[in-house]
Structures are given as C-alpha cells and as structure tokens.
C-alpha cells in the first residue's frame, strides 16, 4: 500500500484537475481508495466531517444505505461535527427528525465538539460522543460570534479559505483527531462534484498542516466527487430517502448571519430567512455595527456592502430598527483608540502591503457620558456616520479626502462602541509606529 502522504498527493492531483479531466484520473484515485479500503485494512479508521448540510448528510446517508459504496464496516466510522454555536434552528430540527434516528439504528459513532475558548490553548470540548445520538448539541461554551465581537471584525476569506470556518470547525476537528486517531486514518469531506477547487484547497491545506506537524497524517477522500454527485443530486436524494414534502428541501447549514453565498445560498434565500426571522437577522447587523465602527470600509457582504444596506434595500426596515434598538440599549460602552499602519508592498508607494493594528479601550461608561467626554477631551472633531449612527473622531486619515493613498500610510481615530472588543496589538506595532512617524517628520 502506498504511504499516506503519497496517497494524499495522488488524490490532490485528482481534485485539482478541471472537472472534465477528473474522469481521466478516476482510475488512479479509485485504486488508491480501493487499496485503503481493502479487507486487509479494515481496521483502518474512517472520520467523516459532517457539516450538517445537504452534501455531507447525503454522503453519510448513502453510505449507510449502500454498503458497497463505502467498502468498510460502519463500526470503523466516526462522524464528527464541530459546532459554531450560530446555526439556524431548522438545521437542528432536521438532524434530530431524520438523520439521528438512522444513525442510532446503525449504531454509528457521532462526536459533537466545539472550541472551548478563543485561544488555541483552550482546546476543544466534547459535547457528545455516542453510538445512540438522540439530540443535537448546537451551542457549547464558545460561539463564533464571540470571536467577531472580541475582534471587532467580520467573516472573510484568506488565501482562498474562510478563516471563520477554519477557526470554528477545522481547528477543533484537527485537535480531536490528534487525540483520537492514528496516522494513516482516512478523512472524508463532503465536497460536491462541482466543488473541485474547494477540495483542492482542502487537500493542499491538509498536506501543509501535515508537513508542519499540525495534524495527523491521513488519506483525504472526497466520495461525492468520485460519485459525480452535485448539490442538486444530493438534495434530490435526501428528498427521496426521507420523503420530504413537495417544496421542502434539506436546509443549508450555515450561521444565521453567514455572508458567503456559496454557503448561505442566494440573496433571495437570505432575505427570505431574514424576513421570517427578523430577530435573528438583527443579530448580524449588531455584529456589523461594531466592525463598521472600527473600520468604515468593512461590510458583512464585502467592502462597502453592509447588512444594513441589504436590509433597507429589501424593505426590511424593521430588522434595522430592532438592531439599532438593541445597540442603543447597551448599558456599557467603550471609547476605543485605533491606530493602523500599512507598509508599501514591494516598496511601491501605490500598493498596500502588510497591515498592523493597535486597538485599546481608553475609557468605559454609558454612551451619553462617553460622548460628553469625547467632546471635552479629544482634539479631533466628532463625526457622525448617519447611515449607521456610528461616532468617530479622526486624528489622522490614511490619506486626505480626495487624495490617493501613498504607502507606507497610517491612520488614527477614536470610536464609541458597546463594550466587548478586546485590546489587541502586534508585538512589533509600537516600533513600527514610531519609525513611521519619525520618517514623516522630515
């Protein structure tokens, strides 16, 4: 049998190929998987990352009902879900109504976990580990929104990967695998047939982590791609197996405020959910308010594209009213001092390089008292962003209004936000900030 790493590389070559080419490498890929699942290797453990959405659920159900498609006993399978704490309740309802009874019947081991805290040293907590799962444990001691609030930020994509997913799902599963699996186990992910790029990124990231010793070496396997099952196929399959009613679909698994269309669905689907659950929708706007206060260029749906804007464009004024009322109701507020420094990429003054940020709470109190304090103690004049009711005081902008930014560049401001953003500063920030200001004096 090939080494785990060489097998992973072969699977990686398969999934990075264009979709039309996948069929040409299927023979090699299938041979590797067949080797891994040969009866002689039936003691090899299999881990399925279950995201609770259409694709991974269809994969698991098809495996349960079609033994020839998996080639290993269900006793060798462990299904793992890492909770974000932010899922739609409909996901829980469908899991408990349809999938858990099937898992209980076949005594499939189901492990539900989540991060135990913000930092890596906090590790993970096991919410449930059983072969007779009867309920979903959707919320643990940590929730993804805690990270958004503490960082004053929003979900984004870094190097082609959603870092929020890595933090809430990828890391805890890696840590659990480290504690429970031996090198050479098989790790299965439910990427649909049309998601070759995502599978390739996943395989690349897995190989990178293996090389750095951050995860247990494994054979990565993407069965839906082998089967040619796309998301539409998976949805139809679940509809047939579970006899869902006309017009009823297995729900997408995503955070209630997820901005990624590939995960949360189309804008029409998002707006429909917001209209049906205005209280839930308002929570996304609350998260965005603080992030916008710290960075006026950010938005839940990308640069300059805010959840506030989408809600108003879709006639969901009541959602905005709920969010603003909740924000106003906060009893404790902070004045944050924010300093940012941007280097010049490749020494080109027209290109933004690496960012460095310092965030520090300098005063805490009621909103009214802090407004009075800012007026009396800050040199800069207060500015009100009337779109969102955000109050800022700029000491220095990245560039004068109407002028292009010349890098390196810096900005300095104070903002008023509900208490909850952590102080944060990179270790080299003070030195870089002082060096920048020393240079600009001459």
Determine the CATH topology of the largest domain.
Rossmann fold
Total DSSP helices: 17
Query: Could you tell me how far the N terminus lies from the C terminus, measured between alpha carbons in angstroms?
Result: 66 Å
Number of strands: 14
What shape does the CA trace take? globular
Within the largest sheet, what's the order of strands? Answer: 4-3-2-1-7-8
Outline the low-pLDDT stretches. Answer: 1-36
- Content-based structural category: alpha/beta
- Whole-number average pLDDT? 86
List the helices and strands and how they pair.
Layout: H1 4-16, H2 19-36, E1 46-49, H3 54-65, H4 67-70, E2 77-82, H5 89-105, E3 109-115, E4 124-130, H6 144-151, E5 157-158, E6 161-162, H7 163-180, E7 185-189, H8 196-211, E8 218-221, H9 223-227, H10 231-241, H11 261-264, H12 267-276, H13 278-294, H14 307-313, H15 317-329, E9 333-344, E10 352-365, H16 367-377, E11 382-385, E12 390-396, E13 409-418, E14 424-425, H17 429-440
Parallel strand pairs: 1-2, 1-7, 2-3, 7-8
Antiparallel strand pairs: 3-4, 5-6, 9-10, 9-13, 10-14, 11-12, 12-13
């Amino acid at each position: 049998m090939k080494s785990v790493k060489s097998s992973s590389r072969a699977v990686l070559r398969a999934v990075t190929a264009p979709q039309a080419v996948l069929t040409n490498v299927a023979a090699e890929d299938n041979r590797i998987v067949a080797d891994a699942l040969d009866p002689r290797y039936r003691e090899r453990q299999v881990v399925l990352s279950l995201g609770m959405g259409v694709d991974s659920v269809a994969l698991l159900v098809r495996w349960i009902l079609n033994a020839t498609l998996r080639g290993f006993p269900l006793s060798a399978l462990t299904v793992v879900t890492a909770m974000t704490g932010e899922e739609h309740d409909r996901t829980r309802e469908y899991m408990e109504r349809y999938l858990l009874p099937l898992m209980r019947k076949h005594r499939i081991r189901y492990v539900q976990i989540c991060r135990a805290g913000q930092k890596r040293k906090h590790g993970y907590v096991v919410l449930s580990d059983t072969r007779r799962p009867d309920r979903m444990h959707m919320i643990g001691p940590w929730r993804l929104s805690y990270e958004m609030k503490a960082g004053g930020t929003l979900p984004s994509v870094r190097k082609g990967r959603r870092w929020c997913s890595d933090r809430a799902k990828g890391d805890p599963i890696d840590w659990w695998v480290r504690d429970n699996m031996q090198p050479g186990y098989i790790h299965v992910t439910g990427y649909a047939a049309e998601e070759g790029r995502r599978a390739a990124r996943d395989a690349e990231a897995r190989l990178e982590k293996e090389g750095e010793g951050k995860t247990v070496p494994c054979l990565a396997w993407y069965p839906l791609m082998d089967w040619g099952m796309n998301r539409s196929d998976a949805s139809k399959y679940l509809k047939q197996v579970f006899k869902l009613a006309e017009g009823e679909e297995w729900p997408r698994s995503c955070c209630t405020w997820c901005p990624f269309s590939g995960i949360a669905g189309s804008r029409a689907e998002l707006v429909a959910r917001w209209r049906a659950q205005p209280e839930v929708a308002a929570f996304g706007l609350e998260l965005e308010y603080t992030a916008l206060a710290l960075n006026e260029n950010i938005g839940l749906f990308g640069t300059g594209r805010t959840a506030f804007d989408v809600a108003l464009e879709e006639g969901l004024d009541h959602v905005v009213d709920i969010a603003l009322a909740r924000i106003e109701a906060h009893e404790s507020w902070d004045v944050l001092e924010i300093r940012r420094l941007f280097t010049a990429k490749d020494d080109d003054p027209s290109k933004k390089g690496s960012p460095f940020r310092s965030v520090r709470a300098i005063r805490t109190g009621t909103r009214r008292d802090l407004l009075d304090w800012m007026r009396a103690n800050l040199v800069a004049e207060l500015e009100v962003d009337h779109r969102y009711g955000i109050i800022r005081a700029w000491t220095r902008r990245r560039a004068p209004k109407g002028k292009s930014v010349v890098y390196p560049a810096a900005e300095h401001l104070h903002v008023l936000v509900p208490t909850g953003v952590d102080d944060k500063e990179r270790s080299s920030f003070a030195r870089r900030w002082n060096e920048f200001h020393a240079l600009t004096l001459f």
